[in-house]
């Protein structure tokens, strides 16, 4: 693995192919995902990340099931998410499922947390969208606790309390999966990622680069503020969206019918306007290389680049061809070019092996295999659930110091 | 200090447009009244018609075109707004509403605002109070008491249109002087008051 990781991520939409009028079945799309992941590994990409949705036209309701199956079919590929809903999922289940996946995949797993942007998902799962940020803060604090402490006593505002709870299995080798925090424009999430020294992921698709730029800048600055290193040492991941053919004309001709009616941006600006304003690139592999290298101009040296290649009804064979081009023509050049300009001291992309080695060196590794969880003092500042309950003046709270959660 | 700027938003569709004409008159009245206060200001016209396609695209993608981003910046950075719309189906035009819909929430809070509307006859004049004022109340703008409605006949008769325009201009100038807008702090500015640190989120600071 080199200093940067490259991969594909998908939102899992089931969309009609506007050029044939055919809509794939759920089954075809789900099997197509497996084929995409296998192809990604075959052509030398590093990461496959699954989105999570709980409403049609999306199919990916159960990412760890999917990723577990892909893990069995691959050997090298890192399995990740884009994103795991930290707001509406029970953090206890996230802790358990991803630790399980970690063991089954021999550590080839990390996850990207997001709040989700589908309003009704919150009430469907018993939550309130107005609590989005607060849920992200409280649930993640609990998730960390479950991964870092052998026996958890916890009380918060949004979940039933835990007394004497041990999350099983314990993280593989006593090192929890690496966590990225994803957000398009909420400074609180950049701040959260910085506070913990976790990674920050910006999806960097559909939006002008200004959003990415100011989120990454804030995250880097606050990463340093919280003492995790220099701003340049923060761990940044970006998305991107591409469609490639040997010539720009062919690429545009083939992609335009999909673009024009695409679920997210269709019926709006022209393909040309949208590629000008956002990271979308429709053209030759060289054009993709050029545009992707330029992400560094506003995000700095970063660790992970993900590409969206399978949405808006593109048929599987077309998607597999895109992955092939990425793996054979684009990513090898990007690896070389990014490495050649990378500043000294910028950390490599996170892997389980490197994190285990670092934890051993730092003495922060927990007991292996869960049999001997190392006792460690509970950091008061990780006890976020209680803090939020306290502020809200909930029963069981201990006063109401502090100010309101924004 | 640079001169305070007034953004004059007009949503007329015709060319020439009586809505733009009313906006111009309100602008001139305001500038004159500000001059009487000893303040020299400038005004910038934000004409929505050429931005109609960009506004629709922005609603679909969240990406403003350069021209639209510039227009939005003129409005949210201004010291005051004059907003004028034609009356369609008992309300402001869809274009007028859509422009304000793509401005991020909170960006117009406390901004001194003068409203104007045009229509075929004076029977439509309730648009000011039934549609425009509620929207600007939601946006937390400070709206002056007078709102000028200009019916077609007003442009050709002595109906007191000049007097009403002058009064509204004076009211906006007075408000700008007495209660200038308060800027929202930038939540991305680490040293600013709108920034929320993680310690604050946890209730530790």
From TrEMBL, chain B:
<dbReference type="Pfam" id="PF03358">
    <property type="entry name" value="FMN_red"/>
</dbReference>
<keyword id="KW-0285">Flavoprotein</keyword>
<keyword id="KW-0560">Oxidoreductase</keyword>
<keyword id="KW-0288">FMN</keyword>
<dbReference type="InterPro" id="IPR005025">
    <property type="entry name" value="FMN_Rdtase-like_dom"/>
</dbReference>
<dbReference type="InterPro" id="IPR051814">
    <property type="entry name" value="NAD(P)H-dep_FMN_reductase"/>
</dbReference>
<protein>
    <submittedName>
        <fullName>NADPH-dependent FMN reductase</fullName>
    </submittedName>
</protein>
<dbReference type="GO" id="GO:0016491">
    <property type="term" value="F:oxidoreductase activity"/>
</dbReference>
<dbReference type="InterPro" id="IPR023932">
    <property type="entry name" value="CE1759_FMN_reduct"/>
</dbReference>
<dbReference type="InterPro" id="IPR029039">
    <property type="entry name" value="Flavoprotein-like_sf"/>
</dbReference>
<feature type="domain" description="NADPH-dependent FMN reductase-like">
    <location>
        <begin position="4"/>
        <end position="155"/>
    </location>
</feature>
């Amino acid at each position: 693995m080199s200093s940067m990781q490259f991969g594909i991520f998908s939102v899992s939409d089931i969309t009609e192919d506007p050029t044939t009028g055919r809509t794939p079945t759920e089954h075809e799309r789900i099997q197509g995902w497996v084929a995409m992941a296998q192809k990604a590994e075959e052509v030398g990409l590093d990461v496959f990340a699954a989105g999570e949705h709980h409403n049609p036209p999306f199919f990916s309701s159960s990412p760890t099931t999917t990723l577990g199956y892909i893990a069995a079919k691959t050997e090298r590929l890192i399995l990740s998410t884009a994103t795991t809903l930290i707001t509406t999922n029970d953090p206890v289940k996230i802790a358990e499922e991803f630790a399980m996946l970690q063991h089954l995949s021999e550590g080839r797993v990390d996850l990207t947390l997001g709040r989700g942007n589908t309003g009704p998902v919150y009430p469907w799962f018993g939550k309130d969208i107005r609590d989005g940020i607060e849920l992200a803060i409280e649930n993640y604090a609990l998730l960390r606790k479950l991964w870092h402490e052998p026996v958890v006593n916890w009380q918060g505002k949004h979940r039933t309390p835990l007394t004497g709870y041990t999350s099983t299995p314990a993280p593989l080798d006593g090192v929890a999966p690496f966590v990225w925090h994803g957000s398009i424009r909420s400074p609180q999430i950049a701040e959260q990622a910085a506070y913990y020294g976790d990674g920050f992921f910006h999806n960097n698709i559909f939006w002008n680069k200004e959003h990415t730029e100011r989120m990454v800048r804030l995250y880097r600055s606050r990463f340093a503020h919280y003492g995790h290193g220099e701003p340049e040492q923060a761990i940044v991941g970006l998305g991107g969206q591409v469609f490639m053919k040997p010539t720009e004309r062919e690429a545009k001709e083939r992609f335009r019918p999909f673009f024009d009616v695409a679920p997210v941006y269709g019926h709006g600006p022209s393909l040309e306007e949208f590629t000008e304003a956002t990271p979308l690139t429709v053209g030759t592999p060289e054009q993709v290389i050029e545009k992707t290298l330029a992400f560094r101009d506003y995000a700095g040296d970063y660790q992970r680049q993900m590409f969206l290649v399978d949405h808006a009804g593109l048929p599987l064979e077309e998607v597999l061809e895109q992955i092939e081009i990425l793996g054979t023509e684009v990513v090898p050049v990007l690896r070389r070019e990014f490495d050649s300009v990378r500043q000294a001291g910028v950390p490599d992309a996170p892997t389980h092996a490197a994190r285990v080695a670092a934890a051993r060196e730092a003495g922060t590794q927990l007991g292996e295999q869960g049999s001997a969880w190392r006792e460690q003092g509970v950091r008061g500042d990780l006890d976020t659930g209680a803090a939020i309950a306290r502020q809200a003046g909930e029963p069981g709270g201990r006063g109401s110091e502090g100010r309101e959660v924004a | 200090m640079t001169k305070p700027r007034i953004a004059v938003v007009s949503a007329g569709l015709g060319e020439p447009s009586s809505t733009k004409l009313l906006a111009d008159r309100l602008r001139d009245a305001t500038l004159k009244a500000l001059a009487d206060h000893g303040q020299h200001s400038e005004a910038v016209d934000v004409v929505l018609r050429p931005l109609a396609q960009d506004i629709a695209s922005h609603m679909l993608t969240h990406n403003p075109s350069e021209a639209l981003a510039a227009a939005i910046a003129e409005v949210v950075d201004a010291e005051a707004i004059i907003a004028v719309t034609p009356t369609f189906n008992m309300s402001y035009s869809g274009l007028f509403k859509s422009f304000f819909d793509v401005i991020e929430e909170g960006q117009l809070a406390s901004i001194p605002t003068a409203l104007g509307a045009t229509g075929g006859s004076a029977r439509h004049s309730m648009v000011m109070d039934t549609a425009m004022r509620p929207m600007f109340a939601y946006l937390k703008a400070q709206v002056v008491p007078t709102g000028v409605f200009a019916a077609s006949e007003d442009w050709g008769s002595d109906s007191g249109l000049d007097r009403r325009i002058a009064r509204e201009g004076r009211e906006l100038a007075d408000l700008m002087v007495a209660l200038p807008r308060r800027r929202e702090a930038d939540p991305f500015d680490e040293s600013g008051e709108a920034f929320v640190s993680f310690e604050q989120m946890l209730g530790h600071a």
